[in-house]
Design brief:
By secondary structure, the protein is α/β, with parallel strands linked by helices. A hairpin with a 2-residue loop joins strand 9 and strand 10. The protein is globular, with a radius of gyration of 17 Å.
C-alpha cells in the first residue's frame, strides 16, 4: 500500500487536493475512485485515503458473513470494486443498491469502478445496477484518475474532484483549490481545516514519514492534538 504522502510525492494529488479530501473524510464523507483501465491506481488511491479514517470507525468489507449489510451509523463499508467479477469483496447489482442505501443512512461507503467520468459511473451504478440518483450521490466524492506520462508505468493523476453539495454535483478541477486559497475566504470549497492539514502533510514529507502505517499513526496523533472528533 502507498500512503497519502506517497501520492503527493508521485504527483497523484496536490497538497491542496489531499487536504481538502482529508478534511472531508474527517467530516464523514464517502468516496468513489474511477478509471477505465485496469492497473490505473484506483485501489491504491482508495486505500491511501481509507488509511486516514478516524480512529473509532469500524471498517467492513462487502464479503458474505462480514455483517456489512447490518452495520451501524458511522461505520465504513468497503467494496474492493463495483464490478460483476467473482472476486473478494467485489459487488454488483442489488448489492450495489444495498451499499448506496447504507450510504444514504449515515454510513461511509467506499469503492472504485471502471469509469473515467461521473456520467460513466452513474451509468453503471444507476443504469445497470438500479440504484437511485440519491443513492449514487451517497458516494459524495468521485475521483477520476488519468494517466500522466509517456513511460510505463504512467503516474495516476486526480485531474478533478466531483462532489455533492446541496443535492447537486459540483466540480473542482486540478489547481482550483490553490487559487481558492488566496481568494474568497467564504467559499464553500475552502474548508477551515485545510491549511493545518497542508502543514501536516508537508511536515510528513519533510520528516520522511511515508509508510502508510506511520502516516496513519501521525495523522491520528495530529487529530487528537487538534481536538478533532467525529
Amino acid at each position: 500500500m502507498l500512503s497519502v504522502v506517497d501520492l503527493l510525492e508521485a504527483g497523484t494529488l496536490t497538497a491542496h487536493q489531499a487536504a481538502w479530501l482529508l478534511a472531508r473524510i474527517l467530516r464523514g464523507s464517502s468516496w468513489l475512485v474511477g478509471a477505465r483501465p485496469g492497473g490505473a491506481g484506483k485501489t491504491t488511491v482508495m486505500s491511501a485515503l481509507l488509511a486516514m479514517v478516524p480512529r473509532d470507525v469500524d471498517v467492513r468489507l462487502t464479503n458474505p458473513g462480514s455483517g456489512w449489510i447490518e452495520c451501524g451509523s458511522g461505520d465504513c463499508v468497503v467494496a474492493y470494486e463495483l464490478s460483476p467479477g467473482f472476486y473478494d469483496a467485489y459487488i454488483w447489482g442489488q448489492d450495489v443498491v444495498r451499499m448506496t442505501e447504507l450510504g444514504m443512512g449515515r454510513r461511509r461507503i467506499v469503492s472504485n469502478l471502471h469509469a473515467d467520468t461521473l456520467e460513466q459511473a452513474r451509468a453503471q451504478i444507476v443504469g445497470e445496477c438500479g440504484a437511485t440518483e440519491a443513492g449514487f450521490q451517497a458516494f459524495q466524492i468521485f475521483l477520476p484518475l488519468s494517466m500522466k506520462g509517456s513511460r510505463f508505468p504512467a503516474t495516476p493523476t486526480v485531474r478533478q474532484i466531483d462532489y455533492v453539495e446541496a443535492g447537486s454535483w459540483r466540480r473542482l478541477v486540478r489547481g482550483e483549490l490553490e487559487r481558492l486559497s488566496s481568494g474568497n475566504p467564504d467559499s464553500p470549497d475552502r474548508l477551515p481545516e485545510m491549511q493545518k492539514i497542508i502543514e501536516f502533510v508537508t511536515s510528513c514529507r519533510s520528516h520522511k514519514v511515508r509508510r502508510v502505517e506511520d502516516v496513519r499513526e501521525a495523522w491520528l496523533e495530529w487529530c487528537d492534538a487538534a481536538g478533532i472528533t467525529v
